[in-house]
Structure formats: C-alpha cells, structure tokens
Write a structure and sequence with these properties.
Blueprint: H1 13-32, E1 36-45, E2 55-65, E3 69-79, E4 86-98, H2 108-115
Antiparallel strand pairs: 1-4, 2-3, 3-4
Keywords: Hydrolase
GO molecular function: long-chain fatty acyl-CoA hydrolase activity
Family: Belongs to the acyl coenzyme A hydrolase family.
Length: 117
C-alpha cells in the first residue's frame, strides 16, 4: 500500500523486514511444534527495489539449531505486478527461542519428541 512506501515511492524496508519475520516465525513455530519468539534479527540486505503492487514471496529455511533456539534464514522475492519478472528484494536472519507453557525456554529436542507422538 502507498502508506508502506519510502519517500522515493519504493516499498519501505521495515515493511519487508516485517513480512520476513512473519514467514520466519511461521517456520520456527512449525518446526518447533509450538511457541517461538524472535530474539534477534541480523544480516539484513535489500539488493533490489520493490514497487507498490508487486507480489512478495518469502522463502525461509532453518540455518542452525541451538539448545533452545532456531536460526532461520529468510529471503523475499518480488514478482512484478503485471508480469513474470522477479527480483530478490530482501534477505535476513532471525533467531527464535522456543517457549513452554510458562514462557520459559524449552529444548529444541523436546519439540522433536512432540513431533513423533
């Protein structure tokens, strides 16, 4: 939407970061089998421009696993509104911590055990 643009008319980087965080969070929750909260975000790059009306696809993969954390790499690809041309417009890394019902960190292994039930 126009309210999501920078002063030059391109899509604001903060909006792109938010969309990547949503995609990364969905993957972390699915892999972690429960609540996952973002604790850091790093390595952002915006190699291409995205125009209002373009379609954004966010692709994510688990890049690393810690004792209670998952690191997710995300990238955004824009497809022009009325065509098939695509451009990589953003990338970044998010770290998530898995939480139990008491909002305490829980081991990633516990999530894997739940997946086998």
């Amino acid at each position: 939407m126009p309210s999501d643009t920078n002063p030059y008319g391109g899509v604001f980087g903060g909006w792109l970061m938010g969309q990547m965080a949503l995609g990364a969070g969905a993957l972390a929750s699915r892999v972690g089998k429960g609540r996952a909260v973002v604790v850091s975000a790093t390595d952002f790059a915006f190699p291409g421009a995205m125009a209002v009306g373009d379609e954004l696809s966010v692709y994510c993969e688990v890049a690393a696993t810690g004792r209670t954390s998952l690191t997710v790499a995300a990238e955004g690809i824009a497809r022009e509104r009325n065509g098939e041309a695509t451009t990589k417009v953003c990338s970044g890394t998010f770290k998530f911590v898995l939480l139990d019902d008491d909002n305490k960190p829980r081991a990633v292994a516990e999530a894997a055990l739940t997946a086998n039930d």
